[in-house]
Amino acid sequence: MSAPRVEIVVDELIVRGLTPPEARVLAAALEARLAVLAEAGLPSGRPAESFRRLPEVEASSPTGAGEAVAAAVWRGVGGGGSR
Fold first, then answer.
1. Tens of pLDDT along 60-80?
2. 70 with 6: CB under 8 angstroms?
3. Does a structural domain hold residue 9?
4. What's the pLDDT band for 44 if we cut at 50, 70, 90?
5. Torsion angle (degrees, nearest 10) of CA 56, 61, 67, 71
6. Structural domains in the chain (count)
7. Which of 25, 39, 41, 68 could be disulfide-bonded to 57 (CB atoms 3.0-4.6 Å)?
8. What is the DSSP letter of 23?
9. Which domain holds residue 41?
10. What is d(CA 79, CA 68) in angstroms, rounded to the nearest whole number?
């Protein structure tokens, strides 16, 4: 039996209110945080594939925003858990 695989595809990341360099920092933080969360294992409670729109997040920096978005995505994938 093979190990579970996590694949999160972000088709479009719309960032408003940041400069292009800040938006790239946000995107990098999002990707890095999702990688860390994926290393911890799959969240439970959702089907293997799903599509949804998540609520807005608030943060005080581009890095913080990227991490907050990653956490929201992970909660969305896992059905609201705290992973």
1. 999 999 999 898 888 877 755
2. no
3. no
4. low
5. -30
6. 1
7. 68
8. H
9. 20-78
10. 16
